[in-house]
């Protein structure tokens, strides 16, 4: 266990550069005192780790030092061949590079691990998009990815979610592939007062905003290098935006009565945000549960609630109840006649 931790500490310093004892302790889930002892052990073993004191200090490896001891276990080697999504790599313009990297990795592995890795690759394939969904065209993805990597400011012509066309100067900070759709997070430059309203796909309004790559109509790499925000974490920022996006979409509150079966259907088939309304539901005298459910809109609520048939009764808002009643009457009229 300790040997694995020492190797992890060494690789962290090699891959990330200078790191404080506190940051190392957080990454390795140990105390700072343990980090001090581990550094001493690595130094005693001949690993050139230096400590810089004061503000901005930390531990770092001697310039130019690199270890070739990666310590890949069988499981770790196998997992490397599950990390790539071929379609996504091709869209980024990295298909050939990924294939070459896999070949080099296979060549570097011992015979037994190479055989196991080949078995994994031949038995598992990742296909991100959902069924019956064509990939959105993303002609500017490769150029955008290059700008993200080089930290270059870009100028884009962008089609907003409301159909309005805008031009923006952006500092692209990262790319995200979600359910087969590419998004990018970027820091907008100051817009003109008359067009200073939020131009990202959805709220919330933040300094860093989220855009869909498929809505880029033109992209120009300015070649100007920007400074990334200190402490920016792509995964964390995406998680915040995703949560806020989902919350903002579920703006309609519907008061409903559910049978026991209806309660289970909502929990099994509705979104997590909608199903959360059933938490702590108490049964009434009629054997049904009265709860408030959050849904996206009247139209979506109608299409969702009709699946539950008589197991759900909408009490409000009135518009939703009326629309469901109209739908039920129209359906009954179609099937009310005797079958031929």
From TrEMBL:
GO terms for molecular function: DNA-binding transcription factor activity. InterPro entries: CBASS_pafABC_assoc_protein (IPR051534), DeoR_HTH (IPR001034), HTH_11 (IPR013196), PafC-like (IPR028349), WCX_dom (IPR057727), WH-like_DNA-bd_sf (IPR036388), WH_DNA-bd_sf (IPR036390), WYL_dom (IPR026881). SUPFAM superfamilies: Winged helix' DNA-binding domain. Pfam families: HTH_11, WCX, WYL. Residues 2-60 form the HTH deoR-type domain. Transmembrane segments: none annotated. PANTHER family: PROTEIN PAFC, PTHR34580. It comes from Nocardiopsis gilva YIM 90087. Keywords: Transcription, Transcription regulation. This is Transcriptional regulator.
């Amino acid at each position: 266990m300790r040997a694995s931790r020492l190797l992890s500490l060494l690789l962290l310093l090699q891959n990330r550069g200078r790191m404080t004892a506190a940051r190392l302790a957080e990454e390795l889930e140990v105390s700072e005192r343990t980090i001090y002892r581990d550094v001493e052990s690595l130094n005693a073993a001949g690993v050139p780790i230096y400590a810089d004191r004061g503000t901005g200090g930390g531990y770092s490896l001697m310039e130019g030092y690199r270890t070739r001891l990666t310590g890949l276990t069988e499981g770790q080697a196998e997992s490397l061949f599950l990390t790539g999504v071929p379609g996504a790599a091709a869209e980024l313009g990295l298909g050939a590079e990924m294939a070459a990297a896999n070949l080099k990795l296979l060549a570097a592995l011992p015979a037994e691990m190479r055989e196991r890795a080949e078995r994994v690759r031949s038995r598992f394939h990742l296909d991100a998009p959902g069924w019956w969904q064509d990939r959105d065209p993303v002609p500017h993805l490769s150029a955008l990815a290059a700008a993200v990597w080089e930290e270059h400011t870009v100028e884009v012509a962008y089609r907003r979610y409301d159909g309005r066309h805008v031009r923006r100067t952006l500092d692209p900070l990262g790319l995200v592939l979600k359910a087969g759709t590419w998004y990018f997070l970027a820091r907008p430059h100051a817009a003109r007062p008359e067009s200073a309203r939020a131009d990202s796909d959805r709220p919330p309004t933040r300094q860093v905003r989220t855009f869909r790559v498929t809505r880029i109509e033109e992209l120009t790499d300015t070649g100007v290098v920007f400074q990334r925000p200190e402490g920016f974490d792509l995964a964390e920022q995406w998680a915040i935006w995703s949560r806020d996006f989902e919350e903002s979409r579920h703006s309609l509150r519907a008061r409903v009565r559910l049978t026991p079966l209806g309660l289970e259907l909502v929990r099994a088939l509705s979104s997590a945000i909608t199903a959360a309304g059933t938490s702590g539901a108490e049964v009434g005298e009629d054997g049904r549960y009265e709860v408030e459910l959050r849904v996206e809109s009247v139209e979506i609520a109608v299409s969702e609630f009709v699946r539950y048939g008589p197991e759900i009764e909408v009490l409000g808002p009135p518009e939703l109840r009326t629309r469901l009643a109209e739908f039920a009457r129209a359906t009954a009229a179609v099937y009310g006649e005797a079958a031929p």
